[in-house]
Amino acid sequence: MDSALIPQGxxxxxxxxxxxxxxxVGAVLMWGVYAMMLVWIKGLNQTNMNDAxxxxxxxxxxxxxIALGGGAFFTxxxxxxxxxxxxxxxxxxAVIIGFICYSSAQLILGLDVGQPxxxxxxxxxxxxxxxxxxxxxxxxAYFGVLCVEYVPLLLENRQLDRVxxxxxxxxxxxxxxxxxxxxxxxLSFFHQGSLGGVSGVLxxxxxxxxxxxxxxxxxxxxxxxxxxxxxxxxxxxxxxxTEKVTKKKLVKDxxxxxxxxxxxxxxxxxxxxxxxxxxxxATVTAPSKGFDLMTFYSNNPLYGIWILILELVVCGIVPxxxxxxxxxxxxxxxxxxxxxxxxxxxCLNRWVMILQVLAIPxxxxxxxxxxxxxxxxxxxxxxxxxxxxxxIMISYRYLPVFPQEKELNPIAG
Amino acid sequence: MKIDxxxxxxxxxxxxxxxxxxxxxxKITDDLSIWSQNWPWxxxxxxxxxxxxxxxxxxxxxxxxxxxxxxxxRAVKIEGMDGYPVNDGGICPLGLSGLQLLxxxxxxxxxxxxxxxxxxGKWEKISWEKAVSxxxxxxxxxxxxxxxxxxxxxxxxxxxxxxxxxxxFMSAFGSQNFIRQPSMEDSYELALYLMxxxxxxxxxxxxxxxxxxxxxxxxxxxxxxxxxxxxxxSKLIKTGxxxxxxxxxxxxSAAKSDKWIPINPGTETALALAMAHVIIKEGLYNKDFIExxxxxxxDWTDGQGNKQQGFKSLVTATYAPENVAEATGVEKAVIxxxxxxxxxxxxxxxxxxxxxxRTSSAIGEFLAVQALNALxxxxxxxxxxxxISDNDYIDWPEIETDQIASNGLQxxxxxxxxxxxxxxxxxxxxxxxxxxxxxTGYPIQVLFAAGANPLYSLPDTKAVKAxxxxxxxxxxxxxxxxxxxxxxxxxxxxHTYLERYEDVPTPIGLQKPIIGLTRPVVSPQLDxxxxxxxxxxxxxxxxxxxxxxxxxxxxxxxxEKTLGRKLDTLLDKGYWSPAxxxxxEWIKAFETASGKFEFVxxxxxxxxxxxxxxxxxxxxxxxxxxxxVTYPLxxxxxxxxxxxxxxxGDPPFVxxxxxxxxxxxxxxxxxxxPKTAKQLGLSEGKYARLTTPKGNAKVRVHLFxxxxxxxxxxxxxxxxxxxxxxxxxxxxxxxxxxGAVYDPVSGLDxxxxxxxxxxxA
Amino acid sequence: xxxTQGNNGNKKFGMVINLDLCTGCGSCMVAxxxxxxVPFKEDETDKLDSITWMRVYKLKNGKSWPNxxxxxxxxxxxxxxxxxxxxxxxxxxxxxxxATDYSMATGIVSQxxxxxxxxxxxxxACPYHVRYFNxxxxxxxxxxxxxxxxDVSVRMRGVVEKCSFCFHRYQLAMNKAFLEGRRVLExxxxxxxxTQACPAGAITFxxxxxxxxxxxxxxxxxxxxxxxxxxxxxxxxxxxxxTNPKVYYVSSRKWVRQSGDNYxxxxxxxx
Lengths: 413, 761, 271
Ligand SMILES: Nc1nc2c(c(=O)[nH]1)N[C@H]1C(S)=C(S)[C@@H](COP(=O)(O)OP(=O)(O)OC[C@H]3O[C@@H](n4cnc5c(=O)[nH]c(N)nc54)[C@H](O)[C@@H]3O)O[C@H]1N2
Ligand SMILES: Nc1nc2c(c(=O)[nH]1)N[C@H]1C(S)=C(S)[C@@H](COP(=O)(O)OP(=O)(O)OC[C@H]3O[C@@H](n4cnc5c(=O)[nH]c(N)nc54)[C@H](O)[C@@H]3O)O[C@H]1N2
Ligand code: SF4
Ligand code: SF4
Ligand code: SF4
Ligand code: SF4
Ligand code: SF4
Prior knowledge:
Number of strands of chain B: 32
Helix content of chain B: 25-40%
Strand order of the largest sheet of chain C: 6-1-10-9
Number of helices of chain C: 8
Helix content of chain C: 10-25%
Distance between the termini of chain C: 40 Å
Oligomer: heterotrimer
Low-confidence stretches of chain B: none
Bound molecules: ligand MGD, iron/sulfur cluster
């Protein structure tokens, strides 16, 4: 019955199987929706956040998905602005993943603020000094761009494409996509950066604070950089997972390798910058405020120095090395390992820069504050994951997401 | 249809503009945010005319002047009254929270009669006429049966017109059983009676002292009149005065003092006497005072010609510093230097009464500390100790008792205060309840509880409850549903202090007499009645000599008559104080048999003959209860301004100030030295089972370096079971874990702690 | 464009708390709650979820018995002037919606509840844990809402609140002065509720810019160093972060003064 919607020349699983998959993920999604309604109706007391942890799991999830969604802007930038044409074979998927990440981020923000109905004050009463203002403006604008980037793909659905209006609209959008991609890259540069600025500007929180240039702390640049490095890794990782699940090859290796290589170099250079930043911060910035490096990593049951080593070495230097070494990168296991480590690395970085900043006592007579998310927070964090899976399932089933799919998976007979 | 670039762009721009121009989404967005700013369930306090009413706080014996800000009929804030001699604008956390009590859910809204079993919390609303007539009927019965002494009354205070009316009621009725809640007043009163020969209040001129030696008194923990003590302490610090705190635990007072001398609890008497030893040995005492105005310093001969030991030979023989160093835990050198500093200070002052002073203590400790004051000759001197005779403005006509009452009064007090054994003591509340349980003496048939909450605030609450179970009729006059009210048979709720008139005599510890006036700040919010009027009502109901003993139309009429022209001053200025006041000179200050200050303690009989117990019997402390093998630890209580330790519970604001190392959820923390904790296998935050000879409780562990190994401390003021959900069910009531320990010479409860053990829970 | 809080007629209200006098009694906490309609719950023992604009901390000297010492430290909002006193307090500069702002005229950091949308960025920015979020709807037991003060609006759930230096008292005093034809307030006309209540007289409040005012005399703020105290016994919390607080503390105990800031191990050894 839905076969009329499925792109021509490709194989899809039977409808019942698809429906069953949607139902299972949908059930988890509904759990998340239930938790979301609780939070909206009863308020943020449904969370385990507190006055020490004003930012917690959600903001971490937010920053993480935005970093991971960075594959969209960076791949778009490489494809449309730099003109690496091969990437057209993965750009659709990068955009979908980006769209999911950014829409999830918005949803989470809508949950996270105490007065969602006044959320628009951030635009109306904007404070130009605030990194969050910058985030809000750029993020919203960039989400608009992502929508525009997603629409032509939607319109390529077999049935929609039949409508001449949609067909033409899609065609026109394609033509000007470079403009949007450039705009998107510009906006992303700022909002990824200002997200980095969120903790970097906290001059009274020595763990997060970084010096910088003009109004931007170094974390501004580091965030953009790490998103450009790890976003594509996430795109590749999801592509690989999709291939595993569909048991099909969907993107040719050379495409993956180009993207992986670029990501690798981004990651390698990012690590150089990040290590310099860390050393300067540990030896100059923090001590000037009375903090030995180890005070940030002791007297508490969770945050040990292991976390810094994990972030910088295991999830930074190691994946960067794999990715810039053609032999290791070419090995499928090496590639997968590097992708996973890079993704963990960037998420860990966001965790540390949000939660550890708050956990560390700044007043000498206060103690570390530790926190455990409530089930409502966990459910609402899983919610966007489920929503993402469903959107991918639908998009994959009904849209020509992977231009190389037909070629790589010819239908027999 | 072909779409060219132009129509495509028009579509985009037009669409966006079109949506933006539709007012609907913007209007809704704006309306929603406005709605979120005016949620109907978030109250908006109404505005109105602002006025201020001056009154006096009655929430503790402190007697602070307050100024209440009102908006129309609502009282919105209590502040300290500027210029009031006690507190001059300052105010404590409890005083600030008064409106939470006034308007809170813990009030008793109308007269109520018990339904179901006692303590079940089932009540029936009754009218005031019915409530009064029920009490009148019960009282009429016991008078008819010639057992008026079966009526007893326990009250927070025995001073002022309200307590005065209550006491008068008891006398006219024919019962001596008027009982005051215990406090350090008991011990100070007795010490002054024995040493100065007068019934007077202790006054401390801390403001002008130069060296305050505190034997565990929580000068900044609510001892005496709290706010006044705070101010005095600040003045002392600013003028360079020194404070030495002798205390087992690093209390706030200890931490703020210039020197903290940790002592083994219960050995304060010995330390004071050892100091006296040094002062006498080194000849540092005030020769004029000792030689001309003191008696019993040297050995003497009594009326029967027996040689009696004097103070000097007592302390020189027994209390050399090296003899007490081990027991007290204070090194010899420290004792010597402390004694010298104290004696050489320009204006030294020694004070005692542990913590907030809300318990009585061994009389020996008070005598020894007062002896130090005498040695340095600071009695009735600037910066010293003042004995303030209560200004006797209450001058009511003699009661003409009828036959029944006269017979009843023959029976004496059930608590044996004033009896041969405990001749000079006025109240022995713990003994009262013990005698009820033991069925010694005669049965108590009706108990009045007025401003007192014995079921919470007397030691060994289980025993108090057992005693109450033997009293067939308990009448509570409480404004709040406290533990005793909840366990009573009928409640005739009083107005709160913010709804009534009342005179407030000199607050405890003040060095000059004043009278304050509590007055209605708001009209009565509920169907309550002034306790004074209720007493008058009951007396009228009983008729005869009872009615005659209360000739006033109303409490207000009584107050007006009693205060006379002072009332004008009170209404005008908020307080009254004598135009000139000075404490008497030494020559006129003492009314003992010798007319001098007496070191030797000797109860006098009517003829002025001395019935002497050897001096060594008087100057002693008491041991704590429990055997050290079963109970290797010592449990002591501590007081805090952030907890309420009187007849009201901790209002929400007050409990909010309590640290999370004192109370967390429903659990109270026990303070323990980390080394002791380690030996017991306990660590910070762990649950533990605390057991004493009197009871046991589940507590959590808080490691504190400010407490000696082997000692553990629990805060007072928690563990209420009554009131409302904001007050009840938090922590443990210290009084459940402790029992009274009799001071053998005075009969006062002298418990300062109890032996205990702590195990993993 | 840069403004500073020099002596150009601007006030710079501040507070000096004498820790030698402070008894840790908590009156300041309660006075603040009563004055400012601070809500409360049945259980307030989770201090990470308990709104106390003024909070009294217990400091310890870290030594063991009998050398242990403790000191109490009341902590309102510091009304930080930020680097160089330019008004870029940690919290103000991050609020995306200008729901909290710095007043150059008074030096007071405001908080506008109806503007705040509860993002809590300001809480992350403030190192003093001065800012509290309304996790719950404020609920008063039936009847108790009668004591609410109409001079201060009650906050709804989902917004941040903090010590305002009792700004409404400033407004009331200014109104009164204006009606009497005056433009300048006397020192005692504007005093915070906590200052007024403190039974130990430990808190002093006034205009740090005014040499006549006690606060100025007590700490002798150094205008060259954004108000750093010249009184050697005075200190500010986390001075090294350059938040530039307007709340000063005075203590004669060295360990207490040192508890106000962070020091490297090697610095500590030198002190
Ligand atoms: N007596 C007198 N009346 C006047 C005027 C006058 O000068 N004197 N001026 C008139 C004029 S021009 C105006 S605009 C209006 C203003 O009238 P209102 O808007 O009523 O202004 P205010 O009384 O200044 O403040 C309103 C409330 O804000 C509270 N508030 C103070 N700081 C903060 C904060 O940081 N956040 C939040 N949420 N609340 C805060 C105050 O305590 C007060 O309850 O008054 C008019 N009426
Ligand atoms: N610190 C502080 N500053 C504030 C505020 C606050 O609450 N606190 N509120 C702010 C607000 S909301 C406002 S509206 C402004 C108000 O600030 P301003 O507009 O400065 O208001 P006023 O102080 O009332 O002063 C107006 C002047 O007009 C004069 N005037 C009165 N009647 C007349 C007339 O008929 N003709 C002429 N020519 N002059 C007249 C008065 O004498 C006075 O000098 O202040 C703002 N500034
Ligand atoms: S000290 Fe006592 S009298 Fe004074 S305000 Fe506090 S409770 Fe009231
Ligand atoms: S009210 Fe005064 S003495 Fe009490 S804690 Fe506050 S500052 Fe200290
Ligand atoms: S103390 Fe915190 S809330 Fe207050 S001004 Fe400073 S940063 Fe802002
Ligand atoms: S929580 Fe409110 S005051 Fe704080 S930054 Fe966000 S909008 Fe501003
Ligand atoms: S200044 Fe006012 S708002 Fe700030 S802590 Fe003191 S009483 Fe509270």
